[in-house]
Specification:
Radius of gyration of chain A: 24 Å
Strand order of the largest sheet of chain A: 6-7-8-3-9-10
Largest interface: A-B, 41 and 29 residues
Bound molecules: adenosine-5'-diphosphate, magnesium ion
CATH superfamily of the largest domain in chain A: P-loop containing nucleotide triphosphate hydrolases
Radius of gyration of chain B: 19 Å
Number of strands of chain A: 14
Number of domains of chain B: 1
Number of helices of chain A: 12
Oligomer: heterodimer
Number of helices of chain B: 11
Shape of chain A: elongated
Shape of chain B: globular
Distance between the termini of chain B: 13 Å
C-alpha cells in the first residue's frame, strides 16, 4: 500500500473526433485520508480527470493509479472500492429514495443480510429516513444530492469522487451536504476528491487544493500555501499622528518587513505572513511611543490565487448556470 | 478495457437489479401503461371490426380481430421496446449512465440487464393488450403452456428490440431525433409483417421484406400458440427470434462504449 490514494503521471486525454487535448499531461498525487479539491475554469478538464479516475473512459496517454489499482487494467477491482457522484445527477427520480438505495446496493452485490441495515444507516446519516418512501422527483436539490451521496457511500468506499457536489444548492443546503461528507470521512478514513465552483468550500473543507487550467495542473498545495504563493500580505495601520523618519527606519529594519509606505496617519506594511510579523511591528511602534488606532490586514484570497494560476479571473456564475440548466432539465 | 471474465452470479445479480428497477418504475406510474393501450385497442376494435366485416382477407376461417390480435400485441410490445432507447438518452444526459459505469457491474451486463428490463415492461404492456383482446371477444387457445411460451417469446423479442433501440441511442443522441426515428421504424416493420394479412396475399417484394422482418416470426409464433394452435412453424419462429435478439444484444454491448464517451 503506497501512501497515495491517487497517483497520476503525464495523463493525456483527447476525446475521439476532437483535436484539442482535454487533459494535457496531468501530474497529480493525492495522499490518503485527505479531502482534496480540484479547482479550475469551465472546460479545464476536471470532469474528464474524474471520469478517467473512476474508470469510465480511458486516457489517451500516461498512467493513473487509484488506491494502487491501475485504472486501465484493474478497473473491475477498483470499481468495488470507489464511490462517485457525477456533476449532473445519478439517481432515478421516478422511484423512491429507498428503492434507489436498494438498486445500488444490489448492483454492488451487498449481501441480502446486510442490505437493510446498511440502507437504514445511510438514510439516517443523510437525514432522509422520513422521506425514504417518497418519489425522488418530490425532493429538493439538497435532498437529491444527499441521496446521491448516500448511494455512493453505501458500500463504504475507500475513496469518493464528487464532481461539483453542491452546485446550485443554497448556502444552507451546501453546508449540510458538507457536514455529512466530513463526518463520513472522519469515521471511515476515506479519501475525498472533489471539484467545485465554490472557492469558499475548497478553502474551508479541503486539506489540499490543485488548480487545473487547460488540461494541466498549474498549482497544488494547501490553501494557505496557495494564497501566500500569490504575493505578500499587507498590514494597514492607522496611527494618531504621522510616523516620523526615525520610527520609519526602525520599522524597515525589521526582518519580516518587505516594504513600507506612509500616507498621512496611515502606514502600509508588506510582509510575507502577517500573523508572524504583526507582533514585532507593534512592539517597534510601541517602543517609539506611537499610538495605534486601527489595524487592518489584507491577505491574498484563494480567488487571487485562482486568478494568478488559471489566468482568468474567478467567475463562478457561468459554470454554475450551465450545470444548473442541465440539472433543471433532468429533474424537470 | 478489462479482460472479460464472465461471472454468472454477477450477471444474474445485475440483471435482477435492473428488472427490479423497472418493476418499481411501472408500479409507481401506470398511466403510461394505459395510454399505450389506447392505440392497440383501437386497432382491434375499429380496424379489426371494419376490415373483418369486409371479409376481404383470407384468414383461414378465424375471425379477423383474432387474426390481427397477435400482431397488435407484438406491435405494442415493440413500441415500448423501441422507445426504451429514450430512457437511455435521458440517462446519458443525466449522470446515471456515468454513475453505472463506475459501479462493479460490467458494461455488457448493464446493456443486457436494461434490455431485459425493457422486455419486462413490454411484457406487462402486452398483458394489458391480451386482456383487451379477450374483452372484445378474441377466442384464445386455452392452454397454459402455450400461454407461457408466448410470454417468453414476447419478453425475448422485446428485449432484442430494446437492445436495438439502445444501439440507436448511440447514434441519435437527442430526444427529438430519437422520437422521430422510433416512429419511422415501427410502422414499416408492422406493415411489412404478417400482422394484418397472411404472407401469401402480399406482393412478392413485400414478402421478401416480411421474411427478413423479425416481427413476422414473433407474430407467427404467437398466432400459432394463442389463436390457431397450429405449431408447425414454431421452432423456426423461436430460432429466428432468439437469433435476432442475440445479434441485437451483441451489437448493443459493443456500441455501448460509444454512448458514454
Ligand atoms: N464527452 C466529451 N466529448 C468530447 N469532448 C468533451 C467531452 N467531455 C468534455 N469534453 C471537452 O473536454 C474539455 C474538458 O471538459 P471537462 O472535463 O468537462 O471540463 P470541466 O469539468 O473542468 O468543466 C472541454 O474542452 C470539453 O469541451
Ligand atoms: Mg465538469
Amino acid at each position: 500500500m503506497t501512501e497515495y490514494a491517487i497517483d497520476v503521471a503525464n495523463l493525456e486525454k483527447i476525446y475521439s473526433g476532437r483535436s484539442k487535448k482535454a487533459l494535457d499531461g496531468v501530474n497529480l498525487k493525492v495522499e490518503r485520508n485527505k479531502i482534496f479539491a480540484i479547482l479550475g475554469p469551465n472546460g479545464a478538464g476536471k470532469t474528464t480527470l474524474m471520469r478517467i479516475l473512476t474508470t469510465q473512459i480511458t486516457p489517451s496517454k500516461g498512467t493513473a493509479r487509484v488506491l494502487d489499482f491501475n485504472v486501465f487494467s484493474d478497473g473491475h477491482k477498483l470499481r468495488k472500492e470507489i464511490g462517485y457522484v457525477p456533476q449532473e445527477m445519478s439517481v432515478w427520480t421516478d422511484i423512491s429514495a429507498y428503492e434507489n438505495l436498494l438498486i445500488y446496493s444490489q448492483i454492488y452485490g451487498i449481501a441480502k443480510a446486510e442490505r437493510e441495515a446498511l440502507i437504514k444507516e445511510s438514510l439516517i446519516r443523510m437525514e432522509l429516513t422520513e422521506y425514504k418512501d417518497n418519489l425522488v422527483n418530490t425532493f429538493s436539490g439538497g435532498m437529491i444530492r444527499r441521496l446521491e451521496i448516500a448511494c455512493a457511500l453505501i458500500v463504504k468506499p475507500q475513496i469518493i469522487f464528487l464532481d461539483e457536489p453542491t452546485i446550485g444548492l443554497d448556502p444552507e443546503a451546501r453546508k449540510k451536504v458538507w457536514e455529512k461528507i466530513v463526518s463520513f470521512t472522519k469515521e471511515s478514513g476515506a479519501t475525498v476528491f472533489f471539484s467545485t465552483h465554490y472557492m469558499d468550500e475548497a478553502d474551508e473543507y479541503a486539506n489540499e487544493i490543485a488548480i487545473i487550467n487547460a488540461g494541466k495542473i498549474v498549482s497544488q498545495g494547501d490553501s494557505n500555501h496557495l494564497k501566500q504563493s500569490v504575493g505578500n500580505q499587507e498590514i494597514i495601520l492607522g496611527l494618531s499622528v504621522p510616523l516620523d523618519d526615525k520610527s520609519k527606519q526602525q520599522l524597515r529594519k525589521l526582518e519580516q518587513v518587505i516594504d513600507l509606505k506612509t500616507n498621512g496617519v496611515e502606514v502600509e506594511v508588506w510582509v510575507k505572513d502577517a500573523s508572524v510579523a504583526l507582533s514585532s511591528i507593534m512592539n517597534s511602534l510601541f517602543s517609539s511611543k506611537v499610538k495605534i488606532e486601527s489595524v487592518k490586514i489584507n491577505k491574498p484570497t484563494l480567488e487571487d490565487a485562482f486568478e494568478k494560476y488559471a489566468g482568468v479571473s474567478y467567475d463562478s456564475t457561468e459554470g454554475i448556470k450551465e450545470v444548473n440548466a442541465v440539472r433543471r432539465r433532468i429533474i424537470g | 478495457m478489462d479482460a472479460i471474465d464472465f461471472d454468472l452470479s454477477e450477471f444474474l445479480r445485475v440483471c435482477y437489479a435492473m428488472l427490479e428497477l423497472e418493476y418499481f418504475r411501472v408500479s409507481h406510474d401506470r398511466t403510461e401503461l394505459y395510454i399505450r393501450a389506447v392505440q392497440p385497442a383501437l386497432w382491434l376494435v375499429l380496424f379489426g371490426f371494419i376490415i373483418g366485416s369486409l371479409r376481404a382477407i383470407p384468414t383461414g376461417g378465424i375471425p379477423y380481430t383474432a387474426f390481427i390480435a397477435p400482431g397488435v400485441l407484438i406491435q405494442s410490445a415493440t413500441t415500448v421496446a423501441i422507445f426504451y432507447g429514450l430512457m437511455i438518452v435521458w440517462e446519458r444526459e443525466s449522470g446515471i449512465l456515468k454513475r453505472l459505469l463506475s459501479t462493479p457491474a460490467p458494461r455488457y451486463v448493464i446493456v443486457i440487464g436494461r434490455a431485459l428490463a425493457a422486455g419486462m415492461r413490454a411484457l406487462i404492456q402486452s398483458l394489458v393488450i391480451f386482456l383487451i383482446a379477450a374483452i372484445v371477444g378474441v377466442k384464445f387457445v386455452i392452454n397454459p403452456i402455450n400461454f407461457l411460451i408466448s410470454l417468453v417469446i414476447v419478453l425475448i423479442f422485446s428485449a432484442g428490440f430494446a437492445a436495438f433501440s439502445m444501439s440507436l441511442a448511440t447514434v441519435f443522441k437527442t430526444r427529438e431525433k430519437f422520437v422521430g426515428i422510433g416512429q419511422l421504424i415501427i410502422f414499416p416493420l408492422f406493415f411489412s409483417s404478417n400482422a394484418l394479412y397472411p404472407l401469401t396475399t402480399m406482393p412478392a417484394f413485400l414478402q421478401m421484406f416480411a421474411y427478413i422482418n423479425p416481427m413476422t416470426y414473433a407474430i407467427d409464433a404467437l398466432r400459432g400458440l394463442l389463436i390457431t394452435n397450429n405449431l408447425t412453424g414454431l421452432s423456426t419462429d423461436i430460432f429466428a427470434v432468439i437469433l435476432f435478439t442475440s445479434i441485437m444484444f451483441y451489437i448493443a454491448a459493443v456500441r455501448f462504449k460509444k454512448i458514454v464517451e
